[in-house]
Amino acid sequence: MSAENLDTPIFYEQLEDLEYDFEDVEMELLRQQAKLTKDLYAKREKLVADIPNFWPLVFEQSPPDIDEYIQPSDAALLLGSLKSLSVDRFELPGGDPRSVVIKFEFFENDHFENTTLEKKFWYRRAKDGWAGLVSEPVDIQWKADKDLTGGMLGLARKVWEEEKAGKTDETEAKKKLKEQMDSTGLGGVSFFAWFGFRGRDVSAEEDREAFKIEQERRQARKEGKEVEDEEDDDDDDDDDDEYELEIFPTADDLAVAISEDLWPGAIKYFTQAQEQDAMSDMDFESDEDMDEADGEKKKDQKK
Amino acid sequence: MSAENLDTPIFYEQLEDLEYDFEDVEMELLRQQAKLTKDLYAKREKLVADIPNFWPLVFEQSPPDIDEYIQPSDAALLLGSLKSLSVDRFELPGGDPRSVVIKFEFFENDHFENTTLEKKFWYRRAKDGWAGLVSEPVDIQWKADKDLTGGMLGLARKVWEEEKAGKTDETEAKKKLKEQMDSTGLGGVSFFAWFGFRGRDVSAEEDREAFKIEQERRQARKEGKEVEDEEDDDDDDDDDDEYELEIFPTADDLAVAISEDLWPGAIKYFTQAQEQDAMSDMDFESDEDMDEADGEKKKDQKK
């Protein structure tokens, strides 16, 4: 299929502007959603606090894009010690509704001293046009020989602190982290390495400037003025560097999956867990019953 | 993990009520979304009408849960003849925002006489607690020997008409349809068989009654009154019967995927198609460029 008429960039500009308008609506809807569900989430928190193992059972039923990151040893820890989970769009009402903080609370456990682990993701724009979630590595106080990340999380945090202090050259911690990452298969990384994610290095200041530039460009185009093209991503190489020491590169996707699926769908996942429990206790009278139960499950998952 | 404290049904009732409250918010947000995006979709329709092959390119880039249903012969027809697609939540503003009508417009083509194919899905509740999308089979005026469903769609429509006329026994059309379905592998069914979907036989009247019963039950529970349990789905067998002659059993999922992903994301999918086109025209200078392009694509797909 040819695209001969599409060399005129005017189409692209108009489509791009329209996408920005749709994005504005999405942001408005996220704000509305946060407002309309606030009391319901508070009610849910109170209600599920009395249900033993509510959150562990939710995690046990988590969808594939979350479940794939939970190793057997992570699952044992979560099932045994997770007390509660909460998600908050902390930049609301004034700021970006896509920024989220995800908070895990734990009972006393064999693996770490922390009772709360909190990871904050800021939605930021870079001057080259990129936009997405960035974060800071959170350290976990592992008990002796109980570090599920095999030391990687601590090193990631250390490297970050070194860089903040201005040490940009190769340090001992960087070298060790690279070695660790090379020797750990990608499929074997603990869920808890997620707390080490940083993403692109975009400061709040750069975000503000990039946002302003974007708004001005949109405004100018709306007024029919000629607008210079965004600088093209010629410095993409920087990205590669930044991802080089990322111990959980898809942590931002996982954060979105938790905030937009696991957290809002918790009652649904918990109910599924209960049904499964009931099923495995049941004496199966006939194969037909099994088929029915499967059919029902499939339908239940539909919205 | 045990669930010993959970035999008290009170938790389930409260969780269920809370889920209804969350559902109300979702409905309200869908209504808001329809209102806030109405003008933007109208603007998009006007804009893309001038872009050759916009909708075919969108379908070419459709996500796996849509793409898996598009057979090579379907793709050829869509790529060559699809003029436009539109989705409308036709029961708004007063009715259920989950009811959708999906309309395909076609240029003159070798396969059928129709220039418009429209499929309506009503969101309905049954008295046994089930809720979901139901529809009516749409017939397509195939040209001689050009029926991509091999006659199944016409038969599905005929069976539906017979049943509406009160013929509940085994007819010639039913027998032929069953034979056809048995001889067609599930993986080989045409995308156009989707127009034959019926779903559960829930009338508008049953929906109204079921909705009323549900509202009354919720209200009573809110007032702290004892409420009788919903009848349990003892007549699940009916479901099996109804799905027996369904030539595209997951048509409702596909309708949701089109309405909530392909339709709102059309500009994104079109842009992807253009980028891919540009990529395949490009002389690759080095492997590094490829890696970068991949990386960018991955990031672009993120929200």
Order of helical and strand elements of chain A:
HHHHEEEEHHHHHHH
Strand order of the largest sheet of chain A: 1-2-3-4
What do the pLDDT scores of chain A average to?
86
Distance from first to last alpha carbon of chain A: 36 Å
Oligomeric state of shown chains: homodimer
Main beta sheet of chain A: strand number and arrangement?
4 strands, antiparallel
The SS-based structural class of chain A is: alpha+beta
Commentary on this structure:
The structure is a homodimer of 303-residue chains. With 303 residues, chain A is of the alpha+beta class. Chain A is 51% helix and 10% strand. Chain A has helices spanning 9-49, 54-60, 64-67, 72-81, 152-164, 172-183, 204-222, 237-244, 251-262, 266-281, 287-300, and strands at 82-88, 100-106, 116-125, 131-135. Chain A has a four-stranded antiparallel β-sheet with strand order 1-2-3-4, sandwiched between helices. In chain A, strand 3 and strand 4 (131-135) form a beta hairpin. In chain A, helix 5 runs antiparallel to helix 6. At the A-B interface, helix 1, helix 2, helix 8, helix 9 and helix 10 of A face helix 1, helix 2, helix 8, helix 9 and helix 10 of B.
Could you provide a short overview of the structure?
2 copies of one chain form a homodimer. With 303 residues, chain A is of the alpha+beta class.
Keywords, separated by commas or semicolons:
homodimer, four-stranded antiparallel beta sheet, disordered C terminus, 4 strands, alpha+beta, 51% helix, 303 residues, 11 helices, globular
